[in-house]
Amino acid sequence: MSSSPPIPVVCALIERDGLVLIAQRPPHKLLGLKWEFPGGKVEPNEEATSAIIREIHEELGCTIHLTRALPRFTHDYGTVVIEMIPFVCALTPESPPPHPHEHVAINWVRPEALLSHDLAAADLPVVASYRLSRTGLD
Length: 138
Fold this sequence. Notes:
The chain has one domain (7-134): Alpha-Beta Complex (Nucleoside Triphosphate Pyrophosphohydrolase).
């Protein structure tokens, strides 16, 4: 475990028509070709809610609104420790469709099929808390 504080990272579970958006990382980046919930690092002095809106606009060219937060947690990748800050979101009515600006692909997936994709390790607990948060919503 690193002695430096965890790096705050936001991610979005964007819902549409009963599906959730996942994005595939570029092959040349850390965790290349793994699927993930889109998002990124929180900048210094930036609120997590502002960071997720900014990151989704940068990565996918769309606009979102937050519907609820999921529990934060830390994940140790060995070389880096992150504080994962997940949000459940939806596209705004005026948003263009998501387009992968920084990913090689995007895919809309049924929530129950999320674990059938090769997800980044830090996204696995996000799936678990998302499923718990949906109990009684279906």
